[in-house]
Amino acid sequence: LNFLIGVTNGGKTTLTNRIIKALPNCCVIHQDDFFKPQDQIEVGEDGFKQWDVLDSLDMEAMVSTVRAWMENPVKFARSHGVNVTPGSKEPASKDTHILVIEGFLLYNYKPLVELFDIRYYLAVPYEECKRRRSTRNYTVPDPPGLFDGHVWPMYLKHRKEMEDDGVDVGKSLQIRILRDCTLDCKETGSLIEGKFNL
Ligand SMILES: Nc1ncnc2c1ncn2[C@@H]1O[C@H](COP(=O)(O)OP(=O)(O)OP(=O)(O)O)[C@@H](O)[C@H]1O
Ligand SMILES: NC(=O)c1ccc[n+]([C@@H]2O[C@H](CO)[C@@H](O)[C@H]2O)c1
């Protein structure tokens, strides 16, 4: 299981799409697909719909989807239209199957944190993040002031919680990932950090 987490507009989806194009037997689960319907999103004291909190996501459904892949990656791949290499369905097949899970709030949900093998963290500075966000069209468009009033403060809060919980990123691996991902880093202008836990 590979986890790709990072700030909104850090380039997670872009990088994920490149990874799945480059690798066979590679499935992806997007956390954004698990947002609850709009009418179930709470409105905070600040007047904003609280999209950037765990309560806005059906995390149990997300974990069930991850478990479905773990139980039978070949079946999961086929039902999601992912090409599998011939022979993968043999019981003794040694083919490697990869799952990429990408999202902005993955490390703050314990049942998911327990499952990861490899994780990467994408970050972009405030100004760049705000600029990119302003070009996006989400299914529910950002009301004026949402970025500074909700999105960025929640990002800082969750990042701090993650660090306080000791979900740190390994330095040696960071170097290795930086080397492996030189191209992507240059292209995304993103900071990429990672940790292997094998
Ligand atoms: N290498 C890059 N250089 C410049 N802009 C980029 C790069 N990669 C992605 N972007 C732009 O940044 C925006 C966010 O990219 P992407 O959708 O991959 O991010 P994300 O982390 O998945 O965001 P979110 O979680 O909010 O959906 C897009 O408009 C995309 O075109
Ligand atoms: N995908 C959606 O339904 C949706 C709706 C409103 C806001 N968002 C934003 O998506 C980002 C994560 O990718 C978060 O910052 C949400 O604000 C998504």
Automatic annotation (TrEMBL):
GO function term, MF aspect, one: metal ion binding
* InterPro entries, sorted: P-loop_NTPase
This enzyme catalyses:
beta-D-ribosylnicotinate + ATP = nicotinate beta-D-ribonucleotide + ADP + H(+); beta-nicotinamide D-riboside + ATP = beta-nicotinamide D-ribonucleotide + ADP + H(+)
Provide the alphabetized UniProt keywords. ATP-binding, Kinase, Magnesium, Metal-binding, Nucleotide-binding, Pyridine nucleotide biosynthesis, Transferase
Q: Report whether Kinase shows up as a keyword of the record.
A: yes
Q: Which GO terms describe its biological process?
A: NAD+ metabolic process; pyridine nucleotide biosynthetic process
TM regions (residue ranges): none
Kindly list any coiled-coil regions of this protein.
none
Q: Which residues form the signal peptide?
A: none
Q: Does the keyword Zinc apply?
A: no
Give GO cellular component annotations, separated by semicolons.
cytosol
Pathway field of the UniProt record reads: Cofactor biosynthesis; NAD(+) biosynthesis
Question: What does the similarity note say?
Answer: Belongs to the uridine kinase family. NRK subfamily.
UniProt-recorded name of the protein: Nicotinamide riboside kinase 2
Species of origin reads Nothoprocta perdicaria
What taxonomic ancestry is recorded? Eukaryota, Metazoa, Chordata, Craniata, Vertebrata
Q: Write the gene name.
A: NMRK2
